[in-house]
Amino acid sequence: MMRRRRGMGIVGVAATTAVVAGTAGAVHHHQEQKYANQAAQQQAQQQAAYDQGVIEAQQAAAAQQAAAAPAEPAGIDMAQLKQLGDLHAAGVLTDEEFAAAKAKLLG
Q: Are 105 and 76 in contact (CB under 8 A)?
C-alpha cells in the first residue's frame, strides 16, 4: 500500500512560488509606472512655470523698450524741408515764401 503524502509537494510549491513572484513583479511594475507618472507631471508643472516666467520677462522687456524709445517728430517730412532750403538757397524762394512754406510743413 502506498502512502499518501501530506502537503502540496514539489509541483504545488513551484506553482505557488511562481504566483507569488508574478504578483510581486506586477505590483513592482505598477509602482514604477505610478512614480514615473508623478515625476512627469511634476516636470510638466515646472516647465509650465518656467515658460510663464519667460513670457512675462519678454513682455516686461518689450514694455521697457517701448517706453525708452524716443518719439520721432510726427508729420515732419525732412526731405521736403531740405528741398525748401535748397530752393531758398538757390534764390527761387524769397525769405517770406520760405518762411511760410517752412511754417506750413512744421505745422
A: yes
